[in-house]
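Recall that a protein's primary structure is simply its ordered list of amino acids. Everything else, from secondary elements to tertiary packing, is in principle encoded there. The following example makes that idea concrete.
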Amino acid sequence: MDKKIIFATGNEGKIKEIKMIFEDTQWEVLSMKDVGIQVDVEENGNSFEENAIIKAKAIAKYCKEIVLADDSGLVVDALNGEPGIYSARYMGEDTSYVIKNENILDRMKDFKGEKRSARFICAVAAAFPDGQVITTQGVMEGEIAQCSSGENGFGYDPIFYLPQYQSTSAELDPKTKNQISHRGKALEEMKKILVNRLA
């Protein structure tokens, strides 16, 4: 029988990504919804890593499996690092990403070239049943696009431009995105650690 990992999110896009990354392992990835855990965790840390740890430890109290949690966001240099750790809550949690993305594009309209630099950062935390917590981090460098484009991905993907691919993150096919994305990198690193630890 497969070993189980609970991924602490209600975001279907994230669950899809992590299932793809872990599909070649013995683990079955389950969402909080899959295992009937309904908890709102206040992410009040000062970094992506702190928030991921807070989330993983909070959900680990409700189950006996390994719990993975991530915190990620978009960091725009010209906007003093905004939206940063507040990426999900930027302009209000109920505000659609279409509106959030348009707001960022509008604020960036006078910036050219290197001044449009930005990156996605993701921290992943694993909370083990014995109380131990480990973390990994991934970064994807790019810039803010001139306009929103692409149907793949979610969140800020349509406005995150990758010069080496001449496309936004939302225009990449899922497999390529998982290989180069901040979350993909952090999860691949975590997967290696888990495989070695439980070998």
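The two ends are 16 Å apart (CA to CA). The chain has a mean pLDDT of 93.
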